[in-house]
Amino acid sequence: MASYELLRSLEVAVFAVFLVTLCIPLLLSKRIRSWGYAYLISLTPRIYNREMDKHKRRLFSTLNGCSAKEVQILEIGAGGGANFQYFPPKSLVTAEEPNPDFEKYLRQSAEANSHLALKSVVVAMAENMAEVADDSVDAVVCTLVLCSVRDPAAVFSEVRRVLKPGGTFYFLEQVRGKYGSWTNSFQAVFDPVLQLLYGGCSVQDHTWEELGQAGFSTVEWERISGPKSWWIFAPHVMGTAVK
């Protein structure tokens, strides 16, 4: 329990440092901000995974059912590789990440999760992953990413393009709180601030309507409670879409 409280305190301290950093952008170059964002975000996955572990294990349970063969996985916005521990043995992972400074942490995570292999790191926006071939992956994974993309419909189109027939898109994302709730009101008023603090993340609900219109054969999703330490982003959606 003490170590958990220590991690919670660390998250608060990291957030404070991140806030101070973002409040003085004129004193920092774009290059330094890119490196700093990658470093700071790489420190927090343990806390999030601890609180969301049961949800992630349930989400990826069908993916883990593929462990008898090599599984080609593309993770969009892979960050520091926080999801690698949930991928099945023999996974061959392609990590897409627009910030090149995450590559160091992705490779460190791959080394720590020896049951999988990091096939490549693709530096690109999720809306245009031209380096990933058509019909080439068994699964696409996307967690805590869609709030920050510019064109979700284009992302879903790319996901369908790269998935093999019958392949599955796995997602876990934060969304707006229920209409009239305190969380929803806070998100609506402070959305510009949240975009600044969380790398352009603007929490929406209509994204899931677009997913339903993206041409997948089946789409299943549910609302769940997010981690208490992320109370601003507590509402989440989790689910799968099959090509």
From TrEMBL:
Keywords: Membrane, Transmembrane, Transmembrane helix. The chain crosses the membrane at residues 6-28. Residues 74-171 form the Methyltransferase type domain. Pfam families: Methyltransf_11. The keyword Membrane applies. GO terms for molecular function: S-adenosylmethionine-dependent methyltransferase activity. Coiled coil: none annotated. This is Methyltransferase-like protein 7B. The gene is LOC109487843.
